[in-house]
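Notebook p. 47: complex prediction with 2-phosphoglycolic acid.
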Amino acid sequence: MRRKLVVGNWKMHGSRAANEPLLAAIAQARPFGCDVAVCAPFPYLSEVALAWAGGDLRWGAQDVSVHEQGAYTGEVSAAMLAEFGCRYAIVGHSERRQYHHESDQLVADKAKAALARGVTPIVCVGESLAQREAGETDAVVKRQLSAVIHTLAHCAGEMVVAYEPVWAIGTGRTATPEQAQAVHALLRAQLQAATPHASRMKLLYGGSVKADNARTLFAQPDIDGGLIGGASLKADDFIAICRAAG
Ligand code: PGA
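Predicted complex, structure tokens below:
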């Protein structure tokens, strides 16, 4: 049985004053019976690391540079993240694909850069509403995942995959458990053809996961937890989602 993983994606939210009680409340609510992490904006990572030092709660970044080091103003390398205990880096979130024009190959290269430093990439895939309505969901997510599988090669089994339908992100419109499971099963099959570790890999669902829909989503056979945006900013909601996964 795969242990579930719940990851909060704070996006560009937070402040030192707001983070402190949120992190403390999550730490106080443990244990959850699942793995729990938050991916915070870069300036807050050390605050999370300090608040959760020595415990089993994990933390990650929301992006990582494809480069090792050098003249890349504004970028943060995987080595820098790894240096102080970063466990995860989200790569290929639809907001980055959309607003920063990140290609499938760039996303794959970022995943590789993270893994090379021992930071687990959480690779996001997902279709837009237009793509779903055109019946292109399967082709889109397979293409996105295929670039990463190809680039990571024998290390493909080390990533976490997050299926996040773009139409469900921040909209309050969640994929039904059946819709999500269907895509997760497809992704699992694709991974199975590529790595002997597919059956132990974690596939997260993301997109308007809330306390009241988490349990049925997480009960699906190929859904191993969630990537939580809006609800990860409210301690009670996030804790309830973690409990639903435990
Ligand atoms: P949401 O965001 O939970 O607010 O829909 C999820 C995500 O973008 O990771």
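Notes: The longest helix spans residues 137-152. The chain has one domain: 5-245.
Next step: compare against the earlier run before touching the bench.
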